[in-house]
Backbone:
């Protein structure tokens, strides 16, 4: 069941989009065009008046505007916002300046000058790793089972596609290489691999929450509350290992245990994360 309580439209042009999302999630659509240019604190105040978050449970709303769809988490003490904006400056700086094929992610999937592997990202999240791989020349198929997160990805891709002609060539090429679909990877991995034959299955299951919550990024705080821990990550790993892909890559916290019982073919470690690579 969705945790979204309502969808707000912040511009006249986004009203039909907001209504469509509200229909999909079976929640009310609320007009908020008068707050299109409002300060963040004024928008937050309006959202709280409409939703009234409690001490016991966080509430979620979607904001439709000229930008990519935004997911807002409202609690009694905080207001956190995430989106899948594939045109934002920070993400594109990483795409251009992040180290190219020498970065750990590229090495983990086996990217080389003569090889641009086809990747199935079975836990897409906000699509950042998928976008980086697409920017490096990989064809990436994103799979996301959480409806709220998938809505962010879908909107982000749609908003980027609407301005494709005006985007830099490298960015537009990366977006062309990305695709998204709904589904639970555990249930559909065999069928997807049999039909699409990806070279790599990429897994980034939900990290366990850190003890020092102040260190947790806002998107992780939202995901831990919205999605919870991927307690079926072991089954997902087993499905990935059994599906016939040439390589399985698992992103993990640097000090976390491996998934499953198999030993990685090799490991690439950074300051906070590592990639366990299983070559078949």
Residues:
């Amino acid at each position: 069941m969705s945790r979204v309580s309502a969808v707000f439209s912040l511009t006249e042009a986004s009203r039909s989009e907001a209504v469509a999302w509200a229909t999909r999630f079976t929640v009310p659509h609320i007009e908020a065009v008068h707050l299109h240019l409002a300060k963040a604190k004024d928008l937050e105040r309006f959202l709280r008046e409409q939703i009234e978050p409690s001490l016991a449970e966080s509430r979620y709303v979607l904001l439709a505007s000229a930008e990519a769809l935004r997911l807002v988490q409202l609690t009694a003490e905080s207001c956190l916002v995430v989106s899948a904006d594939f045109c934002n400056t920070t993400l594109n700086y990483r795409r251009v300046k992040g180290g190219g094929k020498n970065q750990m992610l590229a090495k983990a999937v086996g990217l080389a000058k003569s090889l641009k592997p086809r990747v199935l990202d079975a836990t897409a999240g906000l699509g950042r790793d998928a976008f980086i791989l697409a920017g490096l020349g990989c064809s990436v198929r994103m799979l996301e089972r959480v409806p709220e997160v998938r809505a962010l990805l879908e909107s982000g891709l749609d908003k980027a596609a609407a301005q494709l002609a005006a985007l830099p060539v490298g960015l537009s090429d990366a977006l062309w290489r990305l695709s998204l679909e709904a589904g639970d990877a555990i249930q559909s991995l065999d069928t997807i691999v049999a039909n699409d034959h990806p070279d790599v299955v990429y897994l980034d299951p939900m990290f366990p929450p850190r003890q020092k919550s102040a260190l947790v990024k806002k998107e992780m705080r939202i995901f831990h509350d919205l999605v919870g821990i991927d307690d079926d990550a072991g089954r997902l790993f087993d499905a990935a290992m059994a599906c016939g892909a040439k390589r399985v890559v698992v992103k993990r916290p640097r000090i976390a245990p491996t998934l499953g019982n198999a030993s990685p073919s090799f490991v690439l470690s950074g300051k906070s994360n590592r990639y366990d690579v299983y070559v078949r």
Observations:
- The chain has a mean pLDDT of 88.
